[in-house]
Design a protein that fits this description.
about 45 residues; mainly alpha; about 50% helix
Length: about 45
């Protein structure tokens, strides 16, 4: 019985975290103006 109660509490906590993150929305970010390096530099 204790395991069932612990599982329910954990599930409620996880769902509360998910709903909190969803309510906050996605962060407003942007892309970097600098291009990414896609090649490996030559070995000296």
């Amino acid at each position: 019985m204790r395991a069932l109660v612990a599982a329910v509490i954990g599930l409620v906590a996880a769902l509360a975290l998910v709903f909190t993150m969803t309510a906050m929305g996605s962060p407003s970010g942007g892309t970097s103006p600098k291009p990414l390096l896609t090649t490996v530099p030559t070995h000296p």
